[in-house]
Amino acid sequence: MKTLNSLTLIFFLQAMLFIFMITIPSSHSITFHPNNNNDLIENICSTAPYYDICIRILTSGSPTADIWGLSVLMVNDMEAKAKEALAKINELQRSGTGSKTSLDSCLKEYNAILEDDIPKAREALQKRDAKISEGALNDVVNEATKCETDFPGYLTEQNTVMHDVAADTIHIFKLLHS
């Protein structure tokens, strides 16, 4: 009798688990299996503001990364782009190109990205709480735009790429807490 009750309980629990699994909408799931990572990347990037940038960055990493791991790739790319922009700013300063005030403004914006915004995004990933970085990621978009406004033409490529990568990163972080 005990065996029959145990088997009935096990069967009941399995049935409940099956029902629970099929009733969860797929849009609420952020855990994906490695064998469909290409589908995950395509699903993320198909709704991202800058599809080509998203695909380029996300396909550069681990083929088994989940959405959190893919988010790390985006933040790493933002950091690399900010460092490239700072190198370009330093090059322009050394050559005496452009307005010192405008270059100083861009230097300030990109330092803020590296010293404030990227660490907040990393903290969000570490804590698995994407909401805490929303303001910082929006700041990245605004800081790149401000640099372009203050110093048009000289850093357009760097500002555009930073803006676009940040916009895609915002998109992915929103998926993490939706």
TrEMBL record:
<protein>
    <submittedName>
        <fullName>Putative pectinesterase inhibitor domain-containing protein</fullName>
    </submittedName>
</protein>
<dbReference type="InterPro" id="IPR035513">
    <property type="entry name" value="Invertase/methylesterase_inhib"/>
</dbReference>
<keyword id="KW-0732">Signal</keyword>
<dbReference type="Pfam" id="PF04043">
    <property type="entry name" value="PMEI"/>
</dbReference>
<dbReference type="InterPro" id="IPR052421">
    <property type="entry name" value="PCW_Enzyme_Inhibitor"/>
</dbReference>
<dbReference type="InterPro" id="IPR006501">
    <property type="entry name" value="Pectinesterase_inhib_dom"/>
</dbReference>
<dbReference type="GO" id="GO:0004857">
    <property type="term" value="F:enzyme inhibitor activity"/>
</dbReference>
<comment type="similarity">
    <text>Belongs to the PMEI family.</text>
</comment>
<keyword id="KW-1015">Disulfide bond</keyword>
